[in-house]
Batch of 2 targets.
Target 1
Amino acid sequence: MKAIVNIYLKEGVLDPQGKATKHALESLGFKNVQDVRIGKQIVLDLDIEDKEEAYKEVEQMAQTLLANTVIEDYNIEIVQ
Amino acid sequence: MKAIVNIYLKEGVLDPQGKATKHALESLGFKNVQDVRIGKQIVLDLDIEDKEEAYKEVEQMAQTLLANTVIEDYNIEIVQ
């Protein structure tokens, strides 16, 4: 089973990488960009058959290692 | 209009960050992880109303700045 964890900065947390990307896009002529936020997308291949079990396990991974829950939020998608 | 660009390493390209994460998960007791790949998720707020136009503009951004197309692939999702 495959799981996708999207990790993104909480609202209100500054995103300097996103800001730098916005400026770079503007200097390249992309004038319609209002905001850029950069997060992580982690794709996990799991040796688990049950969808619910996979979700629970990935939730635990996100809480303990993948995300810094002080400044980041995440969502989990189980595919296949 | 909001666009999400997911950027991930092409198949066959080594992902040391993913490998390190896999090992860290294993050492925490998550034994069912077969593979971990880490990519970026970029969320753009655009001042464009037309969905098709937004897609084209974001495609250009991905090609010229956001992705390194030698080693990375991307997909674009236009939301709202």
Note: DSSP finds two helices and three strands in chain A.
Target 2
Amino acid sequence: MTLRQAQGPGQAQGPSTALLTDRYELTMIDAALRDGTADRPCVFELFGRRLPGARRFGVVAGTGRLLEALRDFRFGDDELRYLRDNGVVSAQTLSFLEGYRFAGTIRGYREGELYFPGSPILTVEGSFAEAVILETIALSILNHDSAIANAAARMSIAAGDRPLSEMGSRRAAEHSAVAAARAAYIAGFGATSNLEAGRTWGIPTMGTAAHAWTLLHDTEEEAFRSQVEALGAQTTLLIDTYDIRTGVETAVRVAGTSLGGVRIDSGDLPTVAAEVRAQLDRLGATGTRITVTSDLDEFAIAALAASPVDAYGVGTSVVTGSGAPTAGMVYKLVARQDAAGGWVAVAKASTDKASTGGRKAAFRTLEHGTATSELIAVSDGFESIDTPAEHPDARPLQVTLVDHGEADPAFAGPAGVAQARAHHARVREELPITALALSRSDPALPTVYVDAAR
Amino acid sequence: MTLRQAQGPGQAQGPSTALLTDRYELTMIDAALRDGTADRPCVFELFGRRLPGARRFGVVAGTGRLLEALRDFRFGDDELRYLRDNGVVSAQTLSFLEGYRFAGTIRGYREGELYFPGSPILTVEGSFAEAVILETIALSILNHDSAIANAAARMSIAAGDRPLSEMGSRRAAEHSAVAAARAAYIAGFGATSNLEAGRTWGIPTMGTAAHAWTLLHDTEEEAFRSQVEALGAQTTLLIDTYDIRTGVETAVRVAGTSLGGVRIDSGDLPTVAAEVRAQLDRLGATGTRITVTSDLDEFAIAALAASPVDAYGVGTSVVTGSGAPTAGMVYKLVARQDAAGGWVAVAKASTDKASTGGRKAAFRTLEHGTATSELIAVSDGFESIDTPAEHPDARPLQVTLVDHGEADPAFAGPAGVAQARAHHARVREELPITALALSRSDPALPTVYVDAAR
């Protein structure tokens, strides 16, 4: 019987995630178990030194996925055999790993929350061994998902009230595609083409037809007729396989003026969209919607604001973070107990990668509902950190995600995604107007460090 | 009993990959089953219109992973229930999907092979329904893995004989990280930090220690001493947590002059590497190797060619494709039978996304062992395509990957990875010297289309 099977239902539910880990985490545990430091109480922090792509705000995403990965982070027979057969760690460490289950506490930003340079997105408290081992899995998930959410939020801002669909699965690795659909949905997209994202995370799925559909048939008209017969006149017809003008005419002739929509996937979109809209209107199809899908990013979407476009489908740019494919967050030891049991704030000294030691809590200060700063209270001890007295109305940004090993189920599964999406929409309303510009700039809010009240 | 369990051993081995698919593939099948075109014999082609990042060559990677995904591409009870409950497709289509198993033929470039614009990287032959459904999974895997392999190959060229390790898992989504380690290894990296990549694909794993290791201890000396005691003097010590000069001195004092290596993760690397080398030599540690790991990409590696660096560790840039995170390949219908059973070459007409219709085979012409062109023979029928008579020595680039549903096991698993790595090293030797430059440019080889011999 494997360790995983022994946990019973309600515990691990998927394949083990434990080897999605950099080797050095295990060799550090190996050495720490020998020298007695493995048990030292530690505080690790996950944060970004800067925002991806010199943007004005960051968006936290992946938290719910991390909690599920943590649930499945167990070393079963297969994982232990690989480590033993390859001499990665000693027998003592194998024994530690066999019994490993994260029993510490993780506080962090809600999924969908905004963040800024230095924001303590996760604060992981536990022994050195139990906390250091989560470095790779935590960073992998949050760096990827937050990068996507950041790009998606900018596109969502640029799109305004027009619906956005994510359809970039083919331009992302197959499992990243599912995570990307999820992150984009949290950050304001309304649907995805990815069926697994629909099944796993409850995200609405959508789709039209490919050029292959038209090319499969002997004529465009046959292809349209078949699609309308199968899916109804409310379907969306792809009109640019051959000549767009002919495509529109054929579409309306076949489907009637109640045709749901047409999709344009090529050409100079502002020009083409205007022409197609005029042609549809002339043909009486005034209610037929225009979806555009050709290599859109936040800038192209913004440039279409005055065009008669009803919906956007975004592929490559959202799943690759629109130029910033990783959020660049890091996972650092910021405090630990010393041999005498006192707390020590620690930080690397290198000038180009400096960080701020000490356990932290974060608050967003607001004036008349608009955010004014990211307030980070730094403690040199381990007591709980209160809202700074000078800012009694500041909004606390961290919640307890995992309490002594028990993950809060509210953040998991489709319900967690829905909650994160709602939270993101809410907190985005707090941003100052300057934060909504798309150009590269400094963060929209200053990060202010204060000493935690004693 | 689920469909998957019913297949018996040797068939599906992992979770179903069938929903890693865009919804429109299934709705097209829905409509095609109604109108009778679902069974039309078709040829789909996976190719890139251009090379990622205006580079001089592309590298095919992911093929072995695709074959494994194909093995697990089945619609079991869970997948069918999701589709039924969400009204994605009709009952007729659910029934088709329940029995789905790809029974067609896939010819394609070997994994590790170079490619150029228009190269027919995969040629997928089957009925419309059985072939169109593979669009997303095939593109997801090849677009991601080839983008990583392309960046990795350039880094490998820049590094010359110095070993390269991939350590970017934390900057990629957790499963992409494993695929990235695999692609980088195929393209010339020697090791990865990712343990799952070691387990699944047989890639050598490596690791040193994090700054957290030093910060955990009361002094740097204690950290170094503990690491050397646990891992031996051949270990690599991270020397830049505090002052580098002191770090080097402490490292040699603790480990002796037989210290295996030091790692530098910050600072101006050419300057710092030279200083560290001089200091190590003064201290008598002339055999101690220097590994550098701070935000390297192919350009930074090239800039260190004259520096006393012994090994490179590359993170973010390799797992994100160094500015080109997706290869931008597409999957297009290029030929099909018409109602009368004749073959028709098809292609989208849009001027900005045009492609070449017809079934193809590809050959690399060589002169004195150096590649001179990517020769693509285009057929308007379905007979096998011979090497063009004018180029009898041209190297055929496609092999049969899947023959009537049966994947060639030689391309799967760790053995497939080893073979791909060897193949890549071999074919890279054929590149003209101009192809090795790192600057943006045109493809190193022209793509030449010829009519297939009749």
Note: The longest helix of chain A spans residues 135-159.
